[in-house]
Design a protein that fits this description.
Layout lengths: L2 E8 L8 E5 L6 E9 L2 E2 L5 E9 L5 E5 L1 E4 L5 E8 L2 H4 L3 E11 L4 E3 L3 E6 L11 H27 L4 H31 L103 E5 L5 E5 L7 E5 L4 E5 L1
Parallel strand pairs: 1-3, 2-11
Antiparallel strand pairs: 3-4, 3-8, 5-6, 5-9, 7-8, 9-10, 9-11, 12-13, 14-15
Helix pairs in contact: 2-3
């Protein structure tokens, strides 16, 4: 269940470098297959005895790893090496800078230009730390060299190979084994000194909220803390349902009389009331000058209380009727 990513690394041309993307948490499933070039031509691997990879992760911690050689049908190394990404390579999200190192049996080291592996964050953001998996990757050098030596001894029992050639191969593997042992010792000393303990990186983005777990048992009640400061006044809530009217309170003292208001509009005239009791007789008015006109007459009362009717002589005499029961005087027309 491995995915093979082909990458080209030109030791003489920085423009041929690539960027690889993978998901955080992918472990031992991504195989990087590097094709090594020298200015566009296949790199000569005949003198190379060790190939390794070194990187700086986003949290500034370092990572080391051993690369495997690729051989042709005649067991000659070709210009390709492979490296399997472990959990140490993908445990921190972000862009990690890498470089390849090639070394010969004399200790001459050649390093490539930087290339990059971008680790896409997973759904979970676990704590990033430089762990023993980084040292374990280097510790495998010893095991691989030992297995290579054992494989060579088995070849002696299976194939007819010249003794001198087998001895040369064993010597090369022994040199590679010694190189890895010294390399591992130096790395362990560097770890003890704290050379790889970089400053913690910035906190990554918060992951999506997971499903709510089951409710735990209720813990013991803690000690009541001090009363906090009063918080700001909240927004006014919606008006509640009107409650029942309360009992009337005690009547307060009568207040001062207010100013008189403006007069209102005249109301509708009411029905005429019953005639009241006749009032007392008024004083006799002053005698006025009367000028009778034909067809008209005037009434006047003298100082003795006598009633007079005055009219023009050429007209008809008016007829008056007096009701002694009621005291009313009527004129008939």
């Amino acid at each position: 269940m491995n995915l093979i990513y082909d990458m080209v690394v030109d030791f003489s041309n920085n423009a041929r470098t690539n960027t690889l993307e993978t998901k955080k948490g992918n472990s031992n499933s991504i195989v990087c297959k590097f094709t090594l070039l020298n200015n566009g031509n296949p790199f000569d691997m005949s003198d190379v005895v060790m190939a390794s990879i070194k990187g700086v992760k986003p949290d500034d911690s370092l990572i080391y790893g051993a690369c495997d050689f690729v051989y042709d049908e005649e067991e000659n190394k070709v210009n390709q090496i492979t490296y399997t990404l472990s959990d140490a390579n993908t445990c921190v999200s972000g862009r990690t800078s890498y470089e390849l190192s090639l070394a010969d049996e004399n200790g001459v080291v050649l390093q490539s230009f930087n290339f990059y592996i971008y680790v896409i964050p997973d759904l979970f953001d676990e704590s990033d730390m430089w762990g023993k998996s980084d040292i374990t990757a280097v510790a495998t050098y010893m095991g691989r060299a030992q297995r290579a030596a054992t494989s060579t001894e088995e070849m002696m029992n299976t194939f007819i190979i010249g003794y001198g050639e087998v001895e040369q191969i064993l010597n090369r593997f022994n040199q590679e084994y010694d190189f890895y042992v010294n390399y591992l010792q130096e790395l362990q000393e560097a770890v003890s000194r704290g050379d790889f303990n970089g400053a913690p990186g910035p906190q990554g983005p918060q992951g999506e909220r997971g499903e709510q777990g089951p409710k735990g048992d209720q813990g013991e009640r803690g000690v009541r803390g001090e009363k906090g400061d009063r918080g700001p006044k909240g927004d006014q809530g919606e008006q509640g349902i009107k409650g029942d009217p309360g009992a009337p309170g005690i009547q307060g003292p009568k207040g001062d009389r207010g100013p008189k208001g403006d007069q209102g509009e005249q109301g509708i005239q009411g029905e005429q009331g019953e005639q009241g009791i006749q009032g007392p007789k008024g004083d006799t008015g002053e005698s006025g000058i009367i000028t009778p006109t034909s067809g008209f007459y005037t009434l006047s009362v003298d100082e003795n209380g006598d009633l007079y009717a005055t009219y023009a002589g050429e007209g008809e005499d008016p007829e008056f009727i007096y009701d002694s029961n009621t005291g009313n005087l009527y004129v008939e027309v």
